[in-house]
Amino acid sequence: MKPLKTISVFLIMISICISVEAQDTIYTSLLNVSVTNFEEVPSPGDKIFFLSKKTGEMYSGISDKDGKFQITLPNGSEYEVKIKSFDQPMNYLPIQIAEADYDMEFDIGIMYELPKTYTLNNVHFDTNSAKLKSISYESINELAELLLLKETLKIELAGHTDSDGEDEFNLDLSQRRAESVMKYIVKKGIEKDRLSAKGYGPDRLLSEGNKRKDHELNRRVEFKVLFKDSKDEE
Predict the structure, then answer these.
(1) Contact present, 186 and 192 (Cβ < 8 Å)
(2) Angstrom distance (rounded) from CA 168 to CA 176
(3) pLDDT by residue (tens digit) across 71-124?
(4) CB 89 within 8 A of CB 63
(5) Domains of the chain by start residue, with CATH
(6) 165: left (phi > 0), else alpha (psi -120 to 50), else beta?
(7) 99 within 8 A of 75, measured Cβ to Cβ
(8) How many other CB atoms sit within 10 Å of the CB of residue 176?
């Protein structure tokens, strides 16, 4: 009878191992992602993020010259979809991948365009100076990273001041500040011929008020997209 008990225990152990192995199996879905603009022209160099609401895990892929990439995501979760933009990611429509005990495959289309003008967040300078404060680096680094991905993108960096002081001084200051941001971006590996810098002084105020918050709103660095690709010149 002892051999029978040994066989019985051995079979139970096999059953437990098979059960554990089955529980550890992670089924996934292969996403064939296509990124285009609103005219359905392929958009290369876009970094797309997928954040699982179930686990908090982040996945990402970058579109190739045809605007396409593939990514594998675990089944059974809703995913937030975000697109890398100039400093903060852009939110896109979420996707839901059903719970399934088998692998799946889907085609996903993402249609969007970057803003043509944008104000960089938290870009600040020393008073009456073109020296960047360290708080500015994070936002400008994000812009530089996007320019590395979007290899055909060309932009104008525009410096703006408030209306305090002489217009001539403010015009010169805004020019030097725009050039300061441009030089920082060039140091991050962006070709200088993809960038231009222009100071507008106080000519384009966002607020005519004279309170501190009005002046802070008017002191800013914006950029304008000049050129995207051979099919889309601004």
Answers:
(1) yes
(2) 13
(3) 999 999 999 999 998 878 899 999 999 999 999 999 999 999 988 999 998 999
(4) no
(5) 27-111 (2.60.40.10), 117-233 (3.30.1330.60)
(6) left
(7) yes
(8) 16
